[in-house]
Specification:
The structure is a homodimer. Chain A is an alpha/beta fold. Chain A has two domains: 2-152 and 201-299, Ribonuclease Z/Hydroxyacylglutathione hydrolase-like (Metallo-beta-lactamase, Chain A, 4-Layer Sandwich); 156-196, no CATH class. Chain A is built from ten helices and 18 strands. The radius of gyration of chain A is 22 Å and the shape is globular. The termini of chain A are close together. At the A-B interface, helix 1, helix 2 and helix 3 of A face helix 1, helix 2 and helix 3 of B.
Chain lengths: 301, 301
Amino acid sequence: MFAVTILGNNSALPAYDRHPTAQVVTLNDQILLIDCGEGTQMQLSRYKVKRGRLNHIFISHLHGDHYFGLIGLITSMGLLGREIPLHLYAPAGLDEIIALQLKVASTSLPFELIYHTLEKAELLIDTSKFSVECFNTKHRIPCWGFIVREKRHPRKIDKEKVLEYEIPSSFYNALKNGNDYSTKDGDIIRNEQVTIANTPARSYAFCADTVYDESIADITKDVCLLYHEATYLKDFADRAAERFHSTTVQAAMIAKKANARQLLLGHFSSKYEQLDDYLKEAVEIFPNTHLAIEGVSFLVK
Amino acid sequence: MFAVTILGNNSALPAYDRHPTAQVVTLNDQILLIDCGEGTQMQLSRYKVKRGRLNHIFISHLHGDHYFGLIGLITSMGLLGREIPLHLYAPAGLDEIIALQLKVASTSLPFELIYHTLEKAELLIDTSKFSVECFNTKHRIPCWGFIVREKRHPRKIDKEKVLEYEIPSSFYNALKNGNDYSTKDGDIIRNEQVTIANTPARSYAFCADTVYDESIADITKDVCLLYHEATYLKDFADRAAERFHSTTVQAAMIAKKANARQLLLGHFSSKYEQLDDYLKEAVEIFPNTHLAIEGVSFLVK
């Protein structure tokens, strides 16, 4: 299971029951939260995401529509008795704001907040199952995108073959990790004779808020699912550039250049009540485009 | 028109689609906001309250469920081009938090924020039409209640009588203000002979978060509508006291002692999904009790 669930898709301010940016990435037993606009804790409840399983929160930048919901989520976790540390990945400054808000409330959290300040493109998390890296985007203030990659699955045991070659089950884990087997007689059973390749590793890129920037296509090369902001329709390219945002067409061009498999558009301007034109404009350039509709989960495949 | 519209009625954290505290007081052409929990700007939209007409916001205390929605509301007002100054009445510390949040976003608002720090019981607003005063409540951190009073209406002219007594229209304003009229012959026409009493001045008291405290009944004496928190049902009086909150029965006792006309209960604990017992327990002591249900407007009468 590798999916992205949209909790908020609007830019700047909430409108037409669309919420500011927040997304949940589910990767097997992991739940990651990317951005946390106002109302995110309500949206988590609405879409039945278990906040207790949330251990990593990524904040792209400190414009309010990307983090005003964080303090509420954190204090609610405290009220619900959380004890497990929570990792926060964000630009410098967030720690000071949260510390001040806890201080005026005379509140101390029953769990540890572990801050990871985003300062350069780097690997933020690297486990045996997945990794998360950040990259800089070009916005009005320091802003970061994130790429979540699952680790390549281990190979699968071919049950008939391992019995045929009489390989002991104690060696199965070594086989899954790609090792060959040596028999007592010194014969080598090559890994691919007794295992089957698993599905290739999948990846999700969240490109945050950004002006049109082709370097994002290089950074996100061959990603399975690319989320790119499209604040405006194509006619507003000037306004987009001026405000360090992108249009439908620009987002689609990045997806095409990146050779992404699917494109997810979001961060819609409150100028537009109807979103149909976003899709129409993008699919002309990149057919496999979807709108980041709230409550919908998109499989990374 | 004097009414209170409930935008949020839950305590501590949002639950069961109940939101943290926020209320709109409408007094003729004035709209006042009392408390501003997370999601208040969405609730304002949902219940079609025009935020452009909002010039005064009162924050009872700096626990997050009473103010986390303020920064979002303020920045949205800025994005929508507000130019009129906005008055904020709150305990010390709020200005620093907001300044920091604007700074990290490199944002300057297109309107002025005028802070009024709550430090002692005093008159905060005093116009010819209404007044707002604050009073201290006993909570874990500094906390303030608010009383909104309309000014006593002028008396109404009795049109038949003023003609009968041949009182010149230039004297009508003096009549409305309660003056008697002297005829050329030196006769006195008493004010009540030619005017009719208007409805009495109405008042609303918002008692914020508080432990059971009988002094609130003195402060809110004879108020028309009394909002009192009732975080817990009566069986949890010990927990209420420990956490500086009140129960249903305690809220009802305050309303009774205050000789209030109506009681509004809110700040419900997330322990309770159903609210029926709140009403049942309170009406036994104070029959004219209502639950602060979100989206409902209660007339101050």
